[in-house]
Amino acid sequence: MEALKSPLKNVNGELYIENVPAVKLAEKFGTPLYVISESKIRENYRRLYEAFSNRYDKFRILYSAKANTNISVLKILHDEGAYVDTVSAGEVYIALKAGFKPYEILYTGIDVGDLELKYILDSGVMVNVDSLPQLNRLLKFGIPEVLSVRINTEYGAGHHEYVVTASKFAKFGMNENSALEAYRIAKEAGVKKFGIHMHIGSGITEVTPFIKSGMRLLEIARKICTELGMSFDFIDFGGGLGVPYRPEDQELDLDIFCSRLVGLFRSKLSEFSLGNPELWIEPGRFIVAEAGILLTRVNAIKILPHKRFAFVDAGFNVLLRPAMYGAYHHIVVTNRLNEKPAEVYDVAGPICESGDIIAKERMLPKMCEGDLLAVLNVGAYGFSMSSQYNSRPRPAEVLVKGDKIALIREAETFEDLIRRQRVAEWLEG
Ligand code: LLP
Question: What distances in angstroms separate CA 394 from CA 26, 193, 348, 416, 418, one per listed residue?
């Protein structure tokens, strides 16, 4: 029998998300379908917030919008008191639409163009710069109210090499000398409030990388404060907090994580004379991953001499993580929760590429056409990484709260596939 964690429940062998049967959602909205639980988002946010703020009260969570940019998700987190971490003008635009005030939005752009920099300055959000050239271009257009510098501490980590963002060879952030120069330039230009930032990677379930990198960040902060006679309003340790995906995966030990990070922070604040800054973190996955499932219908069972495929209607256009990172997502057969795993399947999508496999060699109950599968832990980097590849319209998203259901994104239509296309005039007629 499947051991399910909240917001999922096994009710007489059938999957419920909060108080709603998965089958009912699939019937009402069709498949593939992303479903996200409001209670779980709030629960994760509060668990993290309490763990930190009990140890250091000048603490703030910036929800990392890239994990899930649905406006309803952003509104829930705004309501909880979060600020938001954004990485593009588009994310700033959506965060503003969701009700975040400019002073609640931190923008971390990766050496973007002038148009984007102008938009960012005009919106009045806090800016986290990635390089000296980016800073110099930014200051040509205006002076941000709050400026921070992304530091490459060279201590990276992550669930896959593509998501490790700090190392000697990483494209992100500045080293100590460039950072010193950046703060000097920004101070002379008239910036009044400063922060300092790191983000070392994603999907990290060990505490040590955060501590090693955090130590380096604080040393660099000391050097900057001493040499430039300035202080920081916030020190941002980034996101990257991992969640378990496989049943046997270890959770990040929140208690140890918080006590070690806050312990380091507090001790170095006094030792390094860093004043009284706020402690910030910017998790995405930790808050939303476990709140989301993807419902997908079995279209066919195809049996080859050495392989059994379950073909479903969600491919890597809908959920990219398995194809892109070889990521594991647990799968349950929503209408067979009390049945024992009996056969080994590759769960395959409809995309015309051999890499379009959501799960490889997975033991699942014996399935047949029409069964409804739930792919778990897809609330982060699920919909937000989806595409229209193979001209497949993107799916709908539904929010569940108790027994309440709301459609929070309509499924796209064929019309959406060509909405922005124009036919060259010489081809017309
Ligand atoms: N802050 C910055 C500056 C980031 O670049 C990221 C993620 C985060 C915060 C939030 O990281 P999180 O807490 O969610 O790990 N698509 C990949 C993950 C890429 C993360 C990129 N940056 C995946 O599906 O695993």
Answer: 15, 41, 17, 9, 13
Q: What residues line ligand 1, using a CB cutoff of 6 Å?
A: 64, 66-67, 85, 108, 163, 199, 202-203, 238-241, 282-286, 321, 325, 380-381, 385
201 CA from centroid of ligand 1 (Å) = 7
| Cα(337) to centroid(ligand 1), Å | 32
Q: Which of 202, 243, 288 to mutate to test the pocket of ligand 1 (most atoms within 8 A of CB)?
A: 202
Q: pLDDT tens for residues 200-242?
A: 999 999 999 999 999 999 999 999 999 999 999 999 999 999 9
Q: How far is the CA of 65 from the centre of ligand 1 (A)?
A: 9
Structure confidence at residue 2 as a pLDDT band (50, 70, 90): confident
**378: Cβ–Cβ under 8 A, 6 or more apart, which residues?**
34, 289, 292, 293, 294, 319, 321, 329
Does this model's pTM top 0.85? My answer is yes
Output the residue whose Cα is nearest ligand 1's atom 7: 202
- Residues facing 417 on adjacent strands: none
Coil vs helix vs strand at 374: strand
